[in-house]
Structures are given as structure tokens and as C-alpha cells.
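Input record (one chain):
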Amino acid sequence: MTPRRKADTLERLQRIFQQQLAIGQALDHTRQRLRDQEEVLQERARLLDQWEAVMDAFDHAHARGDPERIRGCQQRLDQARQAYRELLATSPPRHAHRPSSATA
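The corresponding structure, as predicted from the sequence alone:
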């Protein structure tokens, strides 16, 4: 093999290595984004479960006409709503649905 051919082969191998490195970095970045998205979705599901439990308690208190429990449920609803808004505010873009200000 001539020196020029060896140099060409070495250059091609270096380009291939650089391409593989770039692909590996892109794959790592994608995996991290998916892990982040999974965490956000799990937290969102937890908050929605909490919201549903508070709504059930609110309905029960309302049906019994218990103003003390109704106020407590309203406070818990406000806290759950705030926690959800904070999740959205700190979530990476496109990881959670951001409701319009009219529904938030």
C-alpha cells in the first residue's frame, strides 16, 4: 500500500470515527431527553391522581353539606393546581401540555 493510499484510508477512518462519535452523542442526548420526559410524565400522573382524590373528597363534602371540609378541599385543590403549574414551569419544553391562560 502506497503512503498516499494509507493516508487516504486513515482520513476515511477518522471521518467514520467522528461520525460514530457524533451519532453516539446524539443518542445519549436523546436518551436523556426521554428519561427527563418520563420523569415529568410520572410526576404529572401523580399530580392528576392527587387532583382526582381531592375532587372526590370535595364532592363527598359538598354532598354532605360540610362547609369545613369543603374549604379544606378548596385549599387542597389550590395547592394541587399550584403544584401542577410549577411542574409545567420547570418542565423541559414540549414535555407537558401547557394549558392556555384561560384554562389554567
